[in-house]
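Technical note accompanying the year-one report. For the benefit of new consortium partners, we illustrate the data format agreed upon in the data management plan: each record pairs a sequence with a structure-token string. No post-processing was applied to the example shown here.
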Amino acid sequence: MPELPEVEVVRAGLAPAVTGATILGVEVFEQRSLRRHDPASGLFESLVTGRVMRSPVRRGKFLWIPLADTGQAIVAHLGMSGQILLRDPGAVESGLLRIRLHIETAPNPAGSRRELWVNFVDQRIFGSMAVDTLVSTADGAPGGLGTDEALIPTQVAHIARDPLDPAFDDARFAQALGRKNTGIKRALLDQTLISGIGNIYADEALWAAKLHYAQPANSLSRARIRTLLAEIRLVLVKALAEGGTSFDAQYVNVNGASGYFSHSLNAYGRQGKPCPRCGTLIVREQFMNRSSHFCPHCQRLRPARPAPPAP
């Protein structure tokens, strides 16, 4: 599943093209890709046609494009294999095309516009698009990266801020971990606690922080939590700089190009290969219907600290 870096690469790629653009028309080729759209609010096509798009916004793995003067936004989730691609009209797309937006860009400095297609492609049809209402954020801070407005779609309001969000509260996160009687990786995958982190970047950050994936979250000291957050941010920023992680043609930017962070991975997908830090072979274990990759020497499961005596 695309994680924060992959979705941010898409957001940044869309921004120059769609900001200020007008939606001329919509083609829906697969109704299942509108599963999260509430038809009681109106037809998707009717709600977006003729609307002007504002700068796209991202929180965690969610992406939305506010529609000017409507109090609504197009919300996109890439699911397992979704892609949002910018194409010139007439370009031949694969048979996996699910939704197409016909747009006319905002005028350039010379005053001219151009028409583009925004194609939503999705092999496994777990992703979606929907029109949703914007509501105020609970903390009064901007909804996500790409906006100064304290607004967020109702479908995204339950998602926690991500660690690259300027409004992410490190102290609150540490307090929440102290209440989690669960493994640290399970906590990192909880999108209501911290968003944008999936299997790949959880494994990479835990390797960098020398933490076992099953280490109880409430056993971590504040110092270890600060180290973990620092490593999470370093991993995400590096992945962003390298265009995200692409293992196949499913994970691409808006121009169809793959990222190359897969060449920088230290733990994820490297089972049987030596740990870059100590040389011990990386191990893969089953975890929550997926896998965890870690170094059994660098990332030992340590005894939890005893609970303080009751007053």
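Partners are asked to follow this layout when depositing records. The chain has six helices and eleven strands.
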